[in-house]
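Box 3.1 A note on notation
Throughout this textbook, protein chains are presented in two layers. The first layer is the amino acid sequence; the second is a token string describing backbone geometry. Keep the layers aligned when reading.
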Amino acid sequence: MIELFPIRKKYVYETLERVDDPERGRRYGDQKLPSVTTILSATKDKSGLDAWAERVGRDNAERIKNEAATVGTHMHNVIERMLAARDLPRPTTWLQLRGYEMGYRLINTYFCHLKEVWGSEVTLYYPGKYAGTTDLVGVYRDQPAIVDFKQSIKPKQAKWIQDYFHQLAAYAMAHDIVHGTSIEFAAVLVSVQDGSTQEFTTTGSEFKRYKEEWMQRVENYWGTCNVVSNGNSD
């Protein structure tokens, strides 16, 4: 399958130890850098999510989130193994089968635009600030790009997924500062459980704004950590 998606090992991506701390969230490397998702979670407005959980019931909300996470894991497995030319295990549950189908749907719909793969599921970090694992970095729609894969129960609107764009900005900035690139384009590819797909892209001044907003969230996160740390030391 590699000939479908040319692998270009242009950069050496470091492997950082990843630890899931139940109190502080996911951490990377000797510096214990917070993950991108940890910072997003700590700095986001959760009022909408809380209202939804109250509306559908806490237990039902937890079930929906867990099932969606399971489907998303299997969807990512399809894409990761396809890019690595590795076979998939036979599905043994309906959620696994759904994830497989959604992964192949993204591949069939959008991967014709994927010209080079520099890395899949590789660790990126911004020294002293944060780290994370990007779904894909390479050349997409003829531009150096960060590409992220998402699954969704219902179709999204761009105004609902600002965290996704900040995540893309985080990985682009980390790649640029460590590897000397200038990534000015990013895409979120969404596979929806109703059988549809969506592509959201960002570039130019908009992507620059997302980068600025992301770094503000990083500063807010570290500021809060410092306040807590100082408070605990008194």
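The beta strands are 18-21, 25-28, 33-34, 114-126, 130-140, 143-152, 185-192, 197-203. The chain has six helices and eight strands.
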